[in-house]
Design brief:
The protein is built from 23 helices and 29 strands. The chain has 666 residues and is of the alpha/beta class. The longest helix is centred in the first third of the chain and has 31 residues.
Amino acid sequence: MAILLGVDTGGTYTDAVLVRDEREVIASAKALTTRQDLSIGIGNATEAVLSQSGVTPDQIGLASLSTTLATNALVEGQGGRVALVYIGFRERDLDTHGLTEALAGDPALVLSGGHNHAGSEAAALDEGALSAWLDTEFGVSAFAVASQFATRNPSHELRVAEMIRAATAKPVSCSHHLSAKLNGPKRALTALLNARLIGMIARLIEKAEATLIRFGIDAPLMVVRGDGALISSAQARERPIETILSGPAASIVGARWMTGATEALVSDIGGTTTDVAVLRDGRPMIDPAGAQVGPWRTMVEAVAMRTTGLGGDSEVHVIDEGLVGGVTLGPRRVVPVSLIALEDPAALHAVLDDQLRNDTPGEHDGRFIRIVPGIEADGLGPKEAALLERIGTGVQPLGAVLRNRMDGAALRRLVVRGLVQVAGVTPSDASHVLGRLDAWDAGAARKAVQLVGRKRTGNGMRLCPEPQTMAQMIVDQLTQQTSLALLETAFAEDDHDFGLPPAQLARHVLMQKGLDRHRGLVRLDSGLNVPVIGLGASAGSYYPAVGVRLGCDMILPEHAGVANAIGAVVGRVTIRRQGTITSPAEGRFRVHLETGPEDFFESDKAMERLIDVLKSDARQTALAAGAEHLQTGMTRDIRTAQAEAREVFLEATITVEVSGRPRIAT
């Protein structure tokens, strides 16, 4: 019987599972994710699961990887430095459509060219301007290219990509390869984010493949896509943007496999994010508008999921305004103090003790910083370079490194690039103080939580000097923010339109009073009407209270902590290809293909041509992904209009889906 290895690389933990013949989990293990060298965490988790089970490497017929790294990178604004070539648009479109914000200082060129709705050239491509621009040294890791109406005629994108590769030998992301839909600015954003992720995902896959070789595992490596389907590692390298929401999508597949539930909310808490999705009729809902991650709405087909910057490693912020005060969590992830203390316990405890001896709380008490080794530091400004040199080696107190507000801005840029990590108090530290976790240094956690509680609120009093009470305040806040995330998803996906935005409905006084079971002249009751499947390593610690708060059944599966890794190996390869037929003139039907538009005088002939191309492409891609026993499905969306008592063809969109189980090595 086949043994399948599933691995999930998350922001804090790397999980590994062994599943026998897609029916039984025979072993699972966790190891800390080692960002400086991902192969260490992958290797530790794989070694542990092999040791537990007694399975030998030659028995493993398939390995599959899911990851939250791409999701976390977009939520935290991280990734490589990239350049955008924007063809056929106006300079001000960069600001209008949010591309300037997404570029975050990275270079861009607005170039003449592009096509019209029918696929005809709207303006000649300015190759001279592109050549001159490419002579500049930008220090970028990849390029993104987006042209006006490239899904109707991609020739300008393809030519620009060809010139970029010839001049720089750098990877290029073309927007029409990532989506067949219109909306050039949104495709440009998707291509830009894809380019930014290429280096990060390539390193992850290389480390995973090297680990398999080191253990003598001769099995194909698959990667989970954002819709829960599997693709080959080579395909994931080319289109890393498709792995956003990979980990959460795998967790939904795993949740369905473990529980058999058909109607539920699935909530997966990790170190960085909480991901909430809806399970209906046993299938995850697909977001028709494209995956939303952090502030970015992409054109990537993915599970309809609301991703919130809330996890076990979310940064704790003290609310120092108002008379009561309190805390809020996220959206940024920091390294828990209890975890970073393991690197140099004596030195870190000495710093915490010194800070506790000071009568006046410091702005950066309980916070530390370190350099992440092995990350390229190209294109840094002088302030960032100077700050890196000041940090040096080892773990440093943040207050000893930051000297002014300009240093703070430089630090934020280094964090965005993934070059440094900040450590601070998190819910994981609070859980160590409360005795719910004992994985790391509970003593360091207690001191750091005490430092946070010494900060003063608007009334001049300290927030909460007693560490145990302060820790409970942090965990209670996680319960509250998790409940809001679940309610927002429920309101967004409910069949009834309540007339207000989901976030406003979740926080509405009537909703919150209903959760409190208000009893006055008015009786109010509210909550969720479906169960919640709680996933993640810390779900058992945090989610029972969430279930009580929302008045719903909270399902915590036996293997909730490794649901992502389970979902990674029980999924299917699914390839979708979509194409369009337009009618530029009556009696003419234009098929828009990668090779350029083709015209027909009969709609049936045009349909036949497009279907043949889509099926061939989808089947070849599925086979390249390692799928077998292929099944093919197809949908047609044909738009017509009535004109003088006759039906006139306007446009047709055809979607072909080819799926199969990944081939298992024998």
